[in-house]
Write a structure and sequence with these properties.
Helices cover 40% and strands 21% of the residues. The chain is an alpha+beta fold and 420 residues long. Strand 9 and strand 10 form a beta hairpin. It has two domains: 309 residues, Bira Bifunctional Protein, Domain 2 (BirA Bifunctional Protein, domain 2); 87 residues, Rossmann fold. The protein binds adenosine monophosphate.
Length: 420
């Protein structure tokens, strides 16, 4: 009768278990790297997102006017909200300030596998440092999170937007022309890039060199083409140090320079990175991040900022594609009252076991021992407790170990020690 809104999903208990598992792992590693959790609202004022991305971003937003006439939107990401929060309340916090978040995001995207209209991001923002070790640690953090979940087939690609900008400048592009190219570069559409540059009257020699430099993984080679660009040379040097630290000290060997990482260019500046799982095909990007400048745009006192966001939905898809099994906590104890006279005592025992931390369930259907046993079996309970008038009289329960088949009468007072 009612349809699920396009691009959204329902999550079965088994799906929720996967989300809960990766959320726990990711949170734990954020904390191990010194990050603290924050939360911001699911909706924000519309101008928070149009301020940085322009009116055209509205195409991608779930925006609405509330009953008070306020222009609001469901959040499409969490960096802008966290920066708003920082400027509001956290500017005086000692630096470096390391914040992380996990939350749902909404984008009016074209839905497909790995691309939804509601999806979940786990991300972080780093305020204060702009050293190579800070950026290397940030990238190492994202890699460690995905790797520790069991993803072995992932690659880390590191680019630099200051260098891309210097390459654009060498081609004498106008700012409008500069904005046209990044989406093509991001998708590595070299033919389209060539046509566009031809339209912009760039010589074939310069086009070939530009594409060649986009392709290179050799920083020293890029450096020889940046002689007149002081800032780009500094950024090249920084990028080189970050990659060296990642290779040699963080021991992440699967990271490499990839100049075609451009991340939309909106407010990113300097180092950017993406982590992908090639096994996922078209929507293979699991994580994106880098150095950005938003604080001054939002009216705060500028400090260096960098961050990233991991897509949790795609991370689960990648784990499933790689055939990694998720830990699945088994239900532990199922209590069966043999008849109505033993229901109160069954509840007392269930309460005692739950208080002691056991996952305990009780037959609520009054369906008799045979059917209840069958149910407990299909649900993979490890222990079954049967309480009948005989047990009640003896102040005991019948405890059946479903793994060994062993069945014994256990007095109430011995039940906990027996279970242990
Ligand atoms: P972005 O904020 O666009 O850099 O996205 C960060 C990460 O979020 C991406 O690497 C994806 O893993 C994930 N992501 C972005 N958009 C979607 C979407 N529509 N559906 C599912 N995951 C997404």
């Amino acid at each position: 009768m009612f349809q699920l809104p396009r691009g959204t999903r329902d999550f079965k208990p088994a799906d929720m278990q996967k989300y809960r598992y990766i959320q726990q792992q990711i949170s734990e590693i954020f904390q191990r790297f010194g990050y603290e959790e924050v939360r911001t609202p699911t909706f924000e004022t519309l101008d928070l997102f149009t301020a940085k991305s322009g009116e055209s971003i509205k195409e991608e937003l779930y925006d609405f006017t509330d009953k008070g006439g306020r222009k609001l939107t469901l959040r499409p990401e969490l960096t802008a909200p966290v920066i708003r929060f920082y400027i509001d309340q956290l500017q005086m916090e000692p630096k470096p300030l390391k914040l992380y978040y996990i939350g749902n995001c909404f984008r009016y995207d074209r839905p497909q596998k790995g691309r939804y209209r509601e999806f979940w991001q786990a991300g972080c923002e780093l305020f204060g440092p702009n050293t190579p070790e800070a950026y290397a640690e940030l990238i190492a953090l994202a890699y460690t999170q995905l790797h520790s979940l069991g993803l072995n087939n992932i690659t880390v690609n590191i680019g630099n937007l200051t260098i891309i900008d210097a390459l654009f400048t060498q081609l004498n592009l106008t700012s409008e022309q500069k904005q046209y190219l990044p989406p093509l570069i991001d998708k590595v559409l070299y033919e389209d890039i060539t046509h566009a540059l031809q339209d912009f009257d760039v010589s074939q020699e310069h086009i070939t060199r530009f594409i060649n430099l986009l392709e290179t993984t050799d920083i020293d080679h890029l450096s020889t083409h940046m002689k007149n660009h002081q800032e780009a040379r500094e950024q090249l040097n920084l990028t080189k140090q970050v990659i060296e630290l990642l290779h040699q000290n963080f021991q992440i060997t699967t990271c490499q320079l990839k100049m075609s990482i451009v991340r939309g260019l909106e407010y990113y500046k300097g180092i950017v990175f993406e982590i992908e799982a090639p096994s996922l095909g078209a929507e293979k990007q699991l994580c994106g991040g880098g150095v950005y400048e938003l604080i001054s745009l939002f009216g705060g006192n500028d400090v260096p900022t960098a961050g990233f966001a991991i897509g949790m939905d795609r991370t689960i898809l990648a784990l499933e594609t790689e055939g990694i099994t998720f830990p699945n906590p088994e239900p532990e104890i199922y209590i069966i009252p043999v008849d109505q006279t033993t229901i109160p005592q069954s509840i007392t025992i269930a309460t005692m076991l739950r208080t002691h931390g056991y996952i305990t369930d009780l037959d609520l259907l009054r369906r008799g021992v045979g059917k209840a046993l069958k149910y407990a079996n299909t649900k993979h309970y490890q222990y079954i407790i049967i309480i009948g008038p005989k047990e009640l009289e003896q102040q005991a329960v019948t405890l059946r170990n479903m793994m060994t088949g062993e069945q014994t009468i256990v007095p109430y007072n011995d039940l906990l020690s027996k279970l242990e």
